[in-house]
Amino acid sequence: MTKDLPRLDLYTLTVAAPRRAGDFAERAERVGWDGMAVVDSQNLSGDVYVALTIAASRTERLGLATAVTNPVTRHPAVTASAIASVHAFSNGRATLGIGRGDSSLAHLGRAPASVGVFASYLDALQTFLRGESVSSMPCHSTNEWRPMFRLLDSQRLPSPAASPGCPIRAQRSKSTSQPPDPR
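The structure corresponding to this sequence follows.
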């Protein structure tokens, strides 16, 4: 008996250049990439969520991912709100790539987050994405617009990072001005 292999999506990597993100995304979708991942490093690139929103507005099926955000430069409520907004605007095509931090923190003179800090951040982030109250903050905090969005759009917004089954994306390690042909 042969088991079906899990699907492997191939993403191209780019920087968050607002005037270029839409054209890049259109070409990536046209030549057959499954998605595009946008660098999240504030000293090397523009804002990742602006670029992903522009890409979403110019494509229909292309997956959209951060490559990668970190637990230090943005509060978990901000990250949850930003990725949930992109996810809603793109009709469920966003994926949150997150790590301990590298270039974005190095450019601020900081080391990557410890494993403990990273784990606590992920717990808070996933709680915000579910629209639940985070009790580990100085006060109870809830992403209140997210559940309201569900009612306004009459759709359930999947949480990009709310489960351990978050997709793993293969991506190029070098950014180019044009997405290469994946064939």
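Helices lie at 18-31, 48-57, 76-89, 103-106, 115-129, 145-153.
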